[in-house]
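re the bet — no i am not wrong, look at it urself. input seq straight from the record:
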Amino acid sequence: MSKPDFSQMSRQELRAYVLAHREDDAAIEALIQSGNPDSPIYPYPQTDEDLKAMEAIFRQKLSGRES
């Protein structure tokens, strides 16, 4: 039995295939690699100031969870 060409499948078709063939590691990897086009993109901090600002945001979010 030959495997389908995952690169030719839409994300929805690939997801349906993975749900039907959960043991197919290649299909799961292809689904993960395809990513979610609706996911926000977060740029990597370019300067020390950007890195410090990101750390401050993370600390603020984490302290909000603890309360």
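see?? The mean pLDDT is 89. told u. also Helices lie at 11-20, 25-34, 48-66. so pay up
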